[in-house]
Design goal:
Blueprint: H1 3-6, E1 13-20, H2 24-31, E2 40-49, E3 53-61, H3 67-70, E4 81-86, E5 89-95, E6 101-103, E7 125-130, E8 135-138, E9 144-146, H4 147-150
Antiparallel strand pairs: 1-3, 1-4, 2-3, 4-5, 6-7, 7-8, 8-9
GO molecular function: metal ion binding
GO biological process, one term: pyrimidine nucleotide biosynthetic process
Keywords: Metal-binding, Pyrimidine biosynthesis, Zinc
């Protein structure tokens, strides 16, 4: 069944398309969208896709997500396309890509890293050191992390 038969087009907001089948809920969790924000969100799971066989789609009405916000989902949805919708038209389309730097979102896995010390208010920071597959290094202790380890 086509996605159009399941959910209609949105007027303004963001459509995350070409999510690997079955990962839409994980994408929402990573984006921190729980439903409690009051945003209208539509989820389409396991619909036909020419490129992927099957895919998931997330439609968020009334909020334009920035590349910085969505690039983090590249760990679970590297194939995702982000469409910004205004007045029912796609005005921007971009593919997710691993972020060059991630600040403040995730904890370093090294228990002795200064960012994990109880009285050190240091913001965890990770730099991208390899793009394919994405690998990050902690700016403080040098521990390497795959994006999947951080999530
Ligand atoms: N979409 C939507 N509401 C709109 C416009 C588009 O929900 N007002 C959705 C479409 O249903 C589709 C995605 O946004 O899932 C991208 O739309 P579009 O670029 O028109 O589709 P395609 O050309 O098929 O996209 P692509 O080339 O990225 O596969």
């Amino acid at each position: 069944m086509s996605e159009e038969l399941l959910v209609s087009k949105i007027e303004n907001g963001t459509v995350i398309d070409h999510i690997p089948a079955g990962r839409a809920l994980t994408v929402l969790r990573i984006l921190g969208i729980s439903g409690k924000e009051g945003l209208r969100v539509a989820l389409v799971m396991n619909v036909e896709s020419k490129k992927l066989g099957k895919k998931d789609i997330v439609k968020i009405e009334g909020r334009e997500l920035t590349p910085e916000e969505v690039n983090i989902i590249s760990a679970v949805a590297p194939t995702a396309t982000i469409n910004i919708i205004r007045n029912f038209a796609v005005v921007k389309k971009f593919k997710v890509t691993p972020p060059d730097v991630i600040r403040g979102r995730f904890k370093c896995k090294n228990p002795t890293c200064v960012t994990n010390a109880p009285r050190e208010p240091v913001e965890p920071t990770f730099y991208l050191v390899r793009r394919e597959p994405p690998l990050f290094i902690c700016a403080y202790c040098g521990r390497y992390h795959e994006l999947g380890d951080l999530l």
